[in-house]
Amino acid sequence: MSQMPAAKEAVKRFEELDTKTKGALIRENLRYFDNSILTDQQRMFLAALSELGTITKSARVAGISPGTPSGWRKYGGDDPEKQERAQVFCEQETIAKQMYIERLEDALDKRAVEGVDKPVFYQGKVVGYDKWYSDNLLMFKLKGERPEKYREVQEHRHNVSGSVEFINRIAGLTEDELRQLANTPIKDVRQEDGIIDV
Fold first, then answer.
1. Helices within 17-39 (DSSP H only)
2. Fewer CB atoms < 10 Å away: N or C end of the chain?
């Protein structure tokens, strides 16, 4: 599944940062996951997830395999401490994902409402900047925030009279007639019989 342009932009901006800056952002987010029951690796993973949004990249930052968080989510049998740790981890992971989604929404708002500066080139040199806005992102945001007003109108019509007629007709058939009807290819059933509507 491909990421939205805002998501790609957020990931690209983060990846372009130097390692020191990335570390500072992740360390800053560690404070949100400072729960005494979680391990340092779990907290590091959650802080990275809140910045990066993917399990693979976050696992790399935390120095674990991408499959490890799956094990953390499982309850630890009869051990109450492991059960509590798994529950807390799941709750904190939800918070980390929400933080990342909010970062994406911030990027979306910036592109849709504030606009982004795109360089204007003349003879290979930047001579200025144009402000670009994304009407598509703005519409997605409006549809999400006010679906009753901005959703696409879809009208569905169903012809139930044919269905009622079909049910009444089948109800009067004998068992042999029902078997015969069930074994009849659809192309052989005539439309004017009212059996099907093609």
1. 19-30
2. N
